[in-house]
Structures are given as structure tokens and as C-alpha cells.
Design goal:
Blueprint (H helix, E strand, L loop, with lengths): L1 E9 L8 E9 L7 E4 L12 E11 L8 E8 L12 H10 L6 E12 L2 E2 L28 H13 L4 E6 L5 E9 L1 H21 L3 E3 L14 E6 L7 H11 L4 H7 L5 H4 L14 E3 L6 E3 L1 H6 L4 E3 L8 H16 L1
Parallel strand pairs: 1-5, 12-13
Antiparallel strand pairs: 1-2, 3-4, 4-5, 6-7, 6-9, 6-10, 6-11, 8-9, 11-14, 13-14
Helix pairs in contact: 1-3, 1-8, 2-3, 3-8, 4-8
Length: 337
């Protein structure tokens, strides 16, 4: 008997990398191993020296094909040295995770996305006028007028559960056709691995419905919500003491860190972080209890319990989870060392 391993990796497309995949047929009992691909077709190598290496790092059951088939997330390596490829952001994230393992970092990432079909968000009018009714009834809405794409969301959620991912919730978002799923709690490298795997499943399942799942940070210009990847974070110290929670906020807002983090939080943050639509303007940094207009929100129960976690509301939907998890872990933990 043979089984299929779907090799998944992140390419070198700029400014927002794409997920790529291809299938390898393996004999029963054989482990997915090193494989290769044409980097000249993924913006990761020139045509005259095009080979790149895939190194398996995270394997889960394939919930789409079923049976013994698996999904295999990979790092991209250089063929001559097996060093991380310049587009490989996982390697640096893994190093930071190992360096600060004693802090026991936990993450929960909230992936917002927007369904598109035939050039417009799913559920938006196709005749007469282009825009639906203003925002208001769509967030966590119920009903055929308020919701579009629930069948895709349910299929994606089921797939994530069957793959063993730590998906912890889903909800409709503020703009019609926009949704969110949450991954976590999980460690620094684990949450990023699972986020990329969940993105693959989202794109792949939406494909079966003839729909594109977009992670654009501002999918529709104007008075419509953008799409973020709000990132919840805590360390062992934060989960025990409120002073550590405040110290984490101060560390992330320190001189030079605001700009460093924004640069790693995804493409188009200037369009999304305008000070409107539940965001703080990208030129300012502030944190506050229960404040969704702040850069970092401290949940009300954290302030009440005097321990817990923070929510960085600035990462975009199109951020690289490896970069975000690395930046937050390194900034908070190094300041507390």
C-alpha cells in the first residue's frame, strides 16, 4: 500500500508570501523525508540555480483526503549547505523559542480573513449596487442576510479539528463575508506552525467551494473594517503577576521596538491601522484595559485577576506568524531577563 504526503511550504513572494504545496506518494511505513522543488517558480531561486530543499518540520493527518494520508509543513533550505533559505523565517523563530523556553510563552492568534468570489466579498450584492448595508449586524451574526460563507467555515473548522490543530474558536467578523478563527494556546513555534497549517486548510477548502479566502489587511477601502491577526501572549510570569503584564506592554512600546514590530507585522498596516475601526493609529503606541482602540489591549479579567495575558492588536491578517511570534517572545522575554 502507498499513501500521499502533501508537502506544504511558504514561498518567497513579496510583499506577502504564498502557501505552496505538492504531493509525494510514499510506500506504507516510509517517513516523509527531504524533498526538493523549483525555487525559480516560487521567487526563491534564479533559473540557473533553481533547486531548493524541503525539510519536514510538522506533520498532521490529512483531513481532506483521509485514510493514512498526511499534511507535511516544511522549512525551506539551501541545497549546498542545508542552511535556512533567506525566506525561511521559521528557523529564527525556533531559535528564539529555544532561547526563552524557561519563560513558557503561550500564544493565541486570531486569524481574520475575507471570502471573495467574482471580484467582490462573498455575500455582497452583484446587481444594482455594489455595497451591502453598513456594518453593524454582521459581527457574530446569524441569518442569511447577515452571514455569507458559513458552510466553508464549518468545513474548515472540522478539518482543523481532525488534523489535531489547537483551533479554539471561530466567529463572523464585522464586515459581511469576513470571518475569524483562533489558534492556541500554544508555544512560540507551535502556534506559528499551526497557523500556517490552518491557513493552508482554509485556502484549500475554500478552493473546493470556488471561493478565495483573502488575508489582505484592508480588503475593501473606505468605511469597512480591515483584517487583522490579533495576537494574545503571556509568559509564566505574566500568568502569575500583573506587574509582569504591565512590563510586557512597556517592553513592546519601548523606543525602537514599536517600529521594529510594525515592520514585521505584515503588509499594508498603514491602510488598516488608521485609528478607526477598532485600531490605534500606527504612529502612536498605547495600551489600556478593555480598549480595542489601543495598540495593546489588556482584557478586563486580567486587570481584575491581576494576572494573565495581553492582546497585541496591530498584526495584520497577512502577517507571517513566525515573525510575529519571534518578535513578541524576544522583546518581552529579553526585557524580563
Amino acid at each position: 500500500m502507498a499513501y500521499r504526503a502533501e508537502y506544504i511550504w511558504i514561498d518567497g513572494t513579496e510583499p506577502v508570501p504564498l502557501v505552496r504545496s505538492k504531493t509525494k506518494i510514499l510506500d506504507d511505513g516510509a517517513e516523509p523525508g527531504i524533498w526538493g522543488f523549483d525555487g525559480s517558480s516560487t521567487n526563491q531561486a534564479p533559473g540557473a540555480n533553481s533547486d531548493c530543499v524541503l525539510k519536514p518540520v510538522f506533520t498532521v493527518p490529512d483531513p481532506i483526503r483521509g485514510g493514512d494520508d498526511v499534511l507535511v509543513l516544511n522549512e525551506v533550505l539551501l541545497p549546498d549547505t542545508f542552511e535556512p533559505h533567506p525566506t525561511n523565517t521559521r528557523a529564527a523563530c525556533a531559535a528564539v523559542a529555544e532561547q526563552y523556553a524557561s519563560f513558557e510563552p503561550w500564544f493565541g492568534m486570531e486569524q481574520e480573513y475575507t471570502f471573495f468570489k467574482e471580484g467582490r466579498p462573498l455575500g455582497w450584492p452583484t446587481e444594482g449596487y455594489y455595497y451591502p448595508a453598513p456594518q453593524g449586524p454582521y459581527y457574530c451574526g446569524v441569518g442569511a442576510v447577515e452571514i455569507a460563507g458559513r458552510d466553508i467555515v464549518e468545513a474548515h473548522t472540522t478539518a482543523c479539528i481532525e488534523a489535531g490543530l489547537s483551533i479554539s474558536g471561530t466567529n463572523a467578523e464585522v464586515m459581511l463575508g469576513q470571518w475569524e478563527y483562533q489558534i492556541g494556546p500554544a508555544g512560540t513555534i507551535e502556534v506559528a506552525d499551526e497557523m500556517w497549517m490552518a491557513r493552508y486548510l482554509l485556502f484549500r477548502i475554500a478552493e473546493d467551494f470556488g471561493v478565495n479566502a483573502s488575508i489582505s489587511a484592508k480588503p475593501i477601502k473606505g468605511d469597512w473594517n480591515g483584517a487583522g491577526c490579533h495576537t494574545n501572549f503571556s509568559t509564566k510570569q505574566m500568568r502569575e503577576d500583573y506587574d509582569a503584564v504591565i512590563a510586557a506592554c512597556e517592553a513592546i512600546g519601548a523606543k525602537g521596538k514599536v517600529e521594529e514590530h510594525l515592520a514585521g507585522y505584515g503588509h499594508g498596516y498603514e491602510d488598516r491601522l488608521t485609528g478607526l475601526h477598532e485600531t490605534a493609529h500606527y504612529t502612536e503606541f498605547r495600551y489600556g484595559v478593555s480598549d480595542r482602540g489601543a495598540s495593546i489591549r489588556i482584557p478586563w479579567q486580567v486587570a481584575k485577576d491581576q494576572k494573565g495575558y495581553i492582546e497585541d492588536r496591530r498584526p495584520n491578517a497577512n502577517c507571517d506568524p513566525y515573525v510575529v511570534a519571534r518578535l513578541i517572545t524576544e522583546t518581552v522575554c529579553s526585557a524580563a531577563s
